Structure formats: C-alpha cells, structure tokens
Amino acid sequence: MFPPSHRGQRTEGISMTIPKTSRGYYRHRDDHSWMDPFSGERVALHVTGSETGGKFACGEALLDPGAGQPLHIHHNIDELLYVLEGEIDFALEGTRFRSGPGGFVFVPQGSIHGFRNLSSAPARMLGVFSPPHLDGMFEAMIGQTPHAFPTIAASFGVEIVGSMIEPITER
Question: Of 72, 74, 105, which Cα lies nearest the Cα of 88?
Fold first, then answer.
C-alpha cells in the first residue's frame, strides 16, 4: 500500500528499462535460501545478478543484537540499504546515525561505511547492490572464520578499513 500522498496517482511517463536477458518471476517469502555468512547475521538473496542480467542483486539481512559489518569500502559497487525492522546504527563517510523501519541509506561506491545492530532486539534490513558482485561474497563466506573475511572480501572488490562501529557516546 502506498503512503496516502501516492494513492490514486497515475504513473504515466515513468519508464523502466528491463534487461533483455532478464525474466520476471515471483518467489514466495518462505522459498528463500538463508545462509549464515557472518556471526549473528543471516542473509537471503532475493534476486541475484544472474537473474537480472548482471544489473543488480537484492538481499535481506537479519542481524542479531551486536551483529553488523566493520568499516569497509566497496570500490566498484553502489549499495542501497533499507531498514525493515528494528534499529541499526550506521557510519557513512564519518557521519554516525541510527535508523529504524523505513530508514534508507545510499552508499556510493568508494564510500567508507559500516553498520551494526546496537539495540537489544533483532533487526532486519534489505540491501540492493549494483553491480551485483556481493552475492558471490556472501556464499564464499559460508563456513569460513571471521579472519578469512578481509581476504575473501578483497576478491570481490571490498576493502576492510576499520573495526566494527561502537555505540555513540554522549559528550
């Protein structure tokens, strides 16, 4: 359902380019394959790069309290993050903020960023990556130790540049 400001509005003039190599499909919410690439983080890829003709990938992350990603850079990937449930703390190019349901973060390629669920409840987030190089990274991390992450990440154009973000302290 659209927010009230969009109800009944026409979408004339809006165009969308669909890659000729892509085919539309539907996947029921119970049909996703969940993987555990990182401690405290479960990931389901809703659509992979091979399904979009190499245009993008979209996945969902379930974050336990304390789970997240250290500060890192995607050298060739733009990332969109949308918080579905819970609260997630973000660092983006030196700015720190917390976002709850409906919060949206755009991370252009080359930006230093990280995120972490610093609340006491689980959180859920949707991520879109273009181009879709990260879908292979999640699969490559399955069964690996956290120490393998920097090497595996580097093979997918991701550079780890810092540690996990800590809670913001009041001054």
Answer: 105
Residue labelled with tokens 């401690």:
39
Parallel, antiparallel, or unpaired: how do β-strands 104-107 and 78-85 relate?
antiparallel
What is the rounded distance in angstroms from the CA atom of residue 14 to the CA atom of residue 26?
A: 22
pLDDT 10s digits, 117-139: 999 999 999 999 999 988 888 88
- Paired strand residues for 73: 159
Query: Cα separation of 107 and 128, whole Å?
Result: 10
Torsion on CA atoms 22, 27, 33, 39, rounded to nearest 10: 90
Identify whether 108 is preceded by a cis peptide bond (ω within 30 of 0).
no
Total residues belonging to the chain:
171
> Helix, strand, or coil here: 161?
coil
Cα–Cα distance for residue pair 146/62, rounded to 1 Å: 18
Give me the residue label for tokens 């580097």: 154
Percentage of the chain exceeding pLDDT 70? 85
Q: For residue 14, give Cα distances in angstroms to 10, 18, 106, 107.
A: 9, 13, 22, 25
Report yes or no: 163 and 114 within 8 Å, Cβ to Cβ.
no
What one-character-per-residue DSSP string does 123-160 give? EEEEEEEES-THHHHHHHHTT--GGGHHHHHHTTTEEE
Answer whether residue 9 shows pLDDT above 70.
no
